[in-house]
Amino acid sequence: MPVLPEKAPPIAARTLSQRRLRCGRLTAVSGNGLAPFLDRRLERLAEKVVAGERLSFADGVVAATTNDLLGVGRLANFVRERLHGDAVYFNVNRHLNPTNVCVASCALCAFAEKYGGVRGWTYSVAEAVDAAARDVTPAVTELHIVGGLHPKLGVEYYEALFAALLARFPWVHLKALTMVEIDFLAQRAKLPVEEVVRRLVAAGLGSCPGGGAEIFAERVRAVICDHKTSGERWLEIARTVHRLGVKSNCTMLYGHIETAEERVDHLVRLRELQDATGGFQCFIPLAFHPAHTRLEHVAPSTGRLDLQTIALSRLMLDNIPHVKAYWIMLGAKAAQIALHFGADDLDGTVVDERITQAAGGEAGAGMARAELEHLIREAGRVAVERDTLYHPVTHSAPAAAG
Ligand code: SF4
Question: Model's pTM, two decimal places?
Fold first, then answer.
């Protein structure tokens, strides 16, 4: 059974002396304060990074476009070690998609099915609990719950679902419903977002995942997800969620038709909201998988873009504690390397992931805790199991089978 210390501080909180130590490591390596970079433009970024100064939009474009991948990775790794030392966080979780039926028709999506379509599924509350029960052991600390925008499922369905899940698995944290899903539920019920969120929290919602942000630039959204909540609206709903005391994650879908400038713009908009609310725990760059989508002609992301985007994110998002290398989308091997390019989190065991698999993801349907820990150790880092809110988790044997 996991033991979750109620008052343990978030793991991101480190002592000043630890930060100075890490800061000193780069200074020592770099002799006169700065190691040589293949791209001399990175020297100005390095001065700012060492001084703890915020990078500008223009700095971000340099980081996103430089050919000095190892240079930008070194800078991001410096920031990552200053924040977290060698720790790499992971959790023991299970995904649950109550439905793939969706009123929207995003070009980027291989997951959704129209109402009445042959590929559609929709769980009753009892079926959803049964599906979760196949894999939720006492070692599982989180259910990650997202799905399509089903025309017949309203707030009441999710209230009943959350209550039933918690009645069956009272130790599990429910991380559920993206800003897009919350927007849909509010519009469908003709209720303010605030009221919908309050009701969901009362039913057991613990926090929200970060999906649906895609790329905020409207030029891109018009092509990849024109039926979906706008970027401005996504940010507005996240602001409301945070104001009500609910933590969330945030994401960026990259590697399709967006430009480097649009990636940086996306990160700056998230950073601005985080300045105002402090509600984001973790940023997750999501590599686009084109298979079986209407964007199938787009070339898949490359290892270079994956690593550079992780590094860019760590450098620009100076106020978001964690950057995740989501192994399901990156693949386990690239995710492991990303732990030296700015990432400090690998997500979790992720049983029954369906969204990336529908788009041709080959990372597999789940990973045992021991495999995750092995990946982290082999990268020269220290594995730290966390709960959804980044508190350390300890297990009393023998429940920790994961
Ligand atoms: S991306 Fe989300 S909103 Fe768009 S079609 Fe797929 S499930 Fe629906």
Answer: 0.89
Mean pLDDT of 228-253: 97
Q: What's domain 88-395's architecture? A: Alpha-Beta Barrel (3.20)
> Which residues does ligand 1 sit against, CB inside 6 Å?
102, 104-106, 109, 111-112, 148-149, 180, 225, 228
Ligand 1 pocket test, pick from 95, 97, 99, 102 with the greatest ligand atom count within 8 Å of Cβ, gives 102
Residue bearing the bigger pLDDT, 329 or 314:
314
Distance 101 CA to ligand 1 centre (A): 9
Per-residue pLDDT of 175-194, as tens digits, reads: 999 999 999 999 999 999 99
Separation of 283 CA from ligand 1 center, angstroms?
20
Whole-number Å distance, alpha carbon 102 to ligand 1 midpoint, is: 6
Confidence of residue 390 (pLDDT cuts 50, 70, 90): very high
Residue with tokens 């790794």: 77
Question: What are the structural domain ranges in the chain?
Answer: 16-84, 88-395
Q: Which of 348, 311, 276 is nearest to 65 (CA)?
A: 311
Sheet strands (E) in 131-256? 142-145, 173-176, 248-254
d(CA 287, ligand 1 centre) in Å: 16
- Cα 42 to Cα 230: distance, rounded to the nearest angstrom: 34
Residue 400 pLDDT level (bands cut at 50, 70, 90)? very low
Contacts (Cβ under 8 Å, ≥6 apart) of 65: 260
